[in-house]
């Protein structure tokens, strides 16, 4: 079944932008590109053709520590669209992925005890393995929702980048589970492409285009499912290699969006900055100093996330103000009401009340 939505509302998960130069900063691994190269090799397209004008050579593709920039990945995707004879090539390339194509990262996820812990590991490192948008996750009842931030920043590259990314991760998660990933619905912010039927065949669930948001809904009850290849010792070993080889330095240019992503996944409830600093492998003092250099404070990021979440719940749910206050990390509803008025200039009741 394909659903068409007339809504054009922007997703609530837009995040603070990064410096312009970050698009040219080598910060992403080559993991996951092998499937695209193989797909095009079958079409008679050489690696050199696919890498044209990117500044990359086929030899560099075999170096596990080699990093590329966001713009280099986008240029490869544009070459792929220009050279292909198939409109659904991004979906078919993603479906070729194997756990080994994601190297240490893929094996670490597969060795996690549960699907939930594998997803948590994945969310931490998605930007480093090729995801071009900031990403967040939260659960509403039995529904897990994966959201990409500000998808329109990719412009005309959005459909291709979204197709190869979702198809790749869908394949990776299916292999980790040794069963289909329990997707419930896929929502895409762009119009249905000519090959829209291939979406349902690839993802095995209803899809919606022109949805105004870029979201992946799945059965959150599966988070407790034990993984068939769970191995706690292997997870520690793989994570050690990952950290030593690929993320020795904190990517400070993406620090604010990364914090935003973490807070969104925790519904804005992250009072312990110590644990956040530990997650980045830096001291609390260094974290405060880096944020100050960007002209923001940790509390301002927390407030922005809580504001976004509160607006989402007010506009899209029937939860009471007390319930929303608790959901976004306030122990007292009165304090939430004051904060909401300060953030938006309006009360929560005025925001929910239909405008004349």
Automatic annotation (TrEMBL):
The keyword Glycoprotein does not apply. Residues 1-10, 17-26 have a biased composition (Polar residues). The keyword Mitochondrion does not apply. SMART domains: HTH_ARAC. Residues 253-354 form the HTH araC/xylS-type domain. Keywords: DNA-binding, Transcription, Transcription regulation. It holds the Pfam family Arabinose_bd. GO terms for cellular component: cytosol. Residues 1-26 are annotated as: Disordered. One of its GO terms (molecular function) is DNA-binding transcription factor activity. This is Helix-turn-helix domain protein.
